[in-house]
UniProtKB/TrEMBL annotation:
Pfam families: PhoX (PF05787). InterPro entries: 6-blade_b-propeller_TolB-like, PhoX, TAT_signal. It comes from the Bacteria. PROSITE patterns: TAT. The lineage of its organism: Bacteria, Bacillati, Actinomycetota, Actinomycetes, Kitasatosporales. This is DUF839 domain-containing protein. Transmembrane segments: none annotated.
Length: 463
């Protein structure tokens, strides 16, 4: 009988070829945001156990409540057509001056493909490609949290998965596809980022930001000090996606400034061609490099297949959520499977990149025998919680959750979808996506992907 043991740090790094690449480890978990978490919710973390919802929609801790703001297939309040399918990435923006305090606009993606039950309606001046079924809608909420308006913000795009807000209060919506004109009924190439002004979508229209690259985009996060934009790529096949940064020609220039172009670069961690090989929280890499993308428009070859010269480039499977906070950008690898081409297996990672130190740190690992041993896997969208830490949407099999991760690395369940339990006569309840908070931190908004539903969750967030 052989006895297995956890691999040492040196063995992990030797397997990944990363020894000698400027790697150090911290002995204080507080320095790396998250570390070892217990197999169940630690005492003091979170808001208590989840209470079953008698209506069979959303389980929450005691003291919290939800309301359904919008469902796919219901009429848009603008009269433009039905609420589109496949609610995905989302952000909340304040409305107007201090006199409008408490009012919120939600910008919501719709990850529609050509077979979507409810496409985003085409609107003059806001439609990129009449063959595209995806796009964004905007919900305007009053101070009481009631929906007062719901309308199309951009249409004719494809597979709008995630994105991210900008410091000038616009939304960057990302197409998770590389389909060309002439395929799937498309009249134009897809795989771009589009800017959406939630207050007046006609100011931004439906203009692709081509310098930000044409690839299977997932999410973006903006450095509010320098205007650098970080982008994740959720590529479906091997070699998997890259982590990018875009250096705008007009950083922090405001609405429409990104049309001026800039430089697209991809992250290289010397000696680490695949991030899945790094398995131990607290592992950090100093001296991260950024390499210019040879052909950002992928006119002949998809970006991840392109030649990045000596040293290659660093890949990772299922790069998803991306969020800026505390001087760093956090990004998610939802899972890695060696059977699909990854160098190693994991059930989800959260990484932190510190631009000032050019330092990459693995801060959370999900799954069996790792940090987060809750009944969850495959983290997806993430955002900062008002009391600190992160909120993480789960994208795995079985019950779907929104998890919280405290700054001490404690993990707790914040919400659980109920329609995935196979109740006769009820539709399957899909993954959570688009978690975000109101500007005052009093309300968490989150989407269910299918059937497309937007929730508002209130309660003692600061308790």
């Amino acid at each position: 009988m052989s006895v297995s043991r956890p691999a040492s740090r040196r063995e992990v790094l030797a397997r990944s070829g990363a020894l000698g690449a400027g790697i150090v480890f911290t002995g204080a978990l507080s320095e790396v945001f998250a570390g070892t978490a217990a197999a169940r919710t630690p005492r003091g973390a979170g808001h208590g156990p989840l209470v079953p919802d008698p209506d069979g929609l959303l389980d929450l801790p005691r003291g919290f409540r939800y309301r359904v703001l919008s469902r796919e297939g219901d009429p848009l309040r603008s009269g433009e057509g039905p609420v589109p399918s496949h609610h995905d990435g989302m952000a909340a923006f304040p409305v107007g001056t201090p006199g409008g305090r408490g009012r919120v606009r939600l910008v919501r993606n719709h990850e529609n493909r050509v077979d979507a039950a409810f496409p985003v309606p085409t609107v003059e001046g806001l439609t990129y490609d009449r063959g595209g079924k995806g796009g964004c809608t905007v919900l305007t909420l009053d101070a009481a949290g009631d929906v007062r308006d719901e309308r199309v913000a951009v249409a004719g795009t494809a597979v709008n998965c995630a994105g991210g807000p900008t410091p000038w209060n616009t939304w960057l919506t990302c197409e998770e596809t590389e389909d060309r004109a002439g395929t799937n009924g498309y009249e134009r190439d897809h795989g771009f980022v589009f800017e959406v002004d939630p207050a007046d979508p006609h100011r931004t229209g439906a203009v692709p930001l081509k310098a930000m690259g044409r690839f299977q985009h997932e999410a973006v996060a903006v450095d509010p000090r320098l205007g650098v934009i970080y982008e994740t790529e959720d590529a479906f096949d091997h070699p998997f996606g890259l982590f990018y940064r875009f250096l705008p020609a007009k950083p922090l220039g405001g609405t429409g400034s990104l049309r001026a172009g800039g430089r697209l670069q991809a992250m290289r961690v010397p000696g680490v061609p695949d991030l899945s090989t790094i398995q131990e929280t607290g592992t950090r890499f100093d001296g991260v490099e950024w390499v210019d993308v040879p052909d950002p428009l992928a006119s002949g070859t998809p970006v991840r297949f392109q030649d990045f010269g000596r040293g290659g480039i660093t890949h990772a499977q299922k790069l998803e959520g991306c969020y800026w906070g505390g001087g760093s950008v956090y990004f998610v690898s939802s899972f890695a499977r060696s059977a699909e081409g990854s160098a190693a297996d994991h059930h989800g990672q959260i990484w932190r990149y510190d631009p000032e130190r050019r330092r990459l740190t693995l801060v959370v690992v999900f799954g069996p025998d790792t940090d987060v041993q809750l009944p969850g896997e495959s983290p997806d969208n993430i955002c900062l919680a008002p009391s600190g830490g992160l909120m993480v949407c789960e994208d795995g099999d079985g019950a779907q959750h929104v998890f919280g991760v405290t700054p001490r690395g404690e993990v707790y369940a914040m919400a659980r979808g109920r329609q995935d339990i196979g109740t006769p006569g009820k539709p399957e309840w899909g993954e959570f996506a688009g978690v975000t908070f109101s500007p005052d931190g009093a309300t968490m908004y989150v989407n269910c992907y299918t059937p497309g539903t937007t929730f508002a969750v209130t309660g003692p967030w600061h308790g």
